[in-house]
Amino acid sequence: xxxxxxxxxxxxxxxxxxxxxxQSVGAAGHLATxxxxxxxxxxxxxxxxxxxxxxxxxxxxxxxxxxxANAELAGAVFAARETLHWRVAYEGVxxxxxxxxxxxxYAFALLVAADPDAPAPFHxxxxxxxxxxxxxxVHYGMHHHLAVEIYNIIGGTGEWKRNEGPWTPRPPGSVIxxxxxxxxxxxxxxxxxxxxWTWVTDVTNSTPVMT
Length: 211
Ligand SMILES: [Fe+2]
Known about the structure:
By secondary structure, the chain is α+β, with helices and mostly antiparallel strands. The protein has one domain: Sandwich (Jelly Rolls), CATH 2.60.120. Helix content is 28%, strand content 27%. It has 5 helices and 12 strands. Strands 1, 2, 3, 4, 6, 9 and 11 form a 7-stranded mixed sheet that branches. Strands 8-7-10-5-12 form a 5-stranded antiparallel sheet. Strand 7 and strand 8 form a beta hairpin. It is globular. It starts with a helix and ends with a strand. 40% of the residues are buried. The model has no long low-confidence stretch (mean pLDDT 96). The site of fe (ii) ion has 5 residues, from loops.
């Protein structure tokens, strides 16, 4: 039987491997920073698990859509799903019908948090890292934040937009860099999307804002 701590330590090891591999795809310097900081993590702390309906309904399919390079990581996320604290995004923020639909059909889980009180097994003052899951046919509208952010697609092909660029399909294996204050959004079509993402700057003073 694998303990939650073993699941979490295994995810860190797989993310180190993924970050090193993905440096050849994009965001090389930022991913190198992430790898360095993953080597400086605190000892794992217990996390109160929490789930969301999007996880119980769509994580298995997103995992099945991973490419070969991400298959082990995808399987590890699935195996660890009940040990993670899956959260709703934009807690307390009001919006229109589309925004409400998005919030019901999107969840994220922190593996590494900068805030020592955040529900994450690991903490680092200059790193945030976790997973996101977006159900099919969900529009995550344009938003921005100060922190530089790298998304790595594990499973599912959605359409992503950055600033004035077009909506662009991003298959598993893609690396997507958002510089400080870049407007960005993501739409799913008939597939859910599972990512791992990391913030490597301004980790403690960034809150995403819809634009
Ligand atoms: Fe973002």
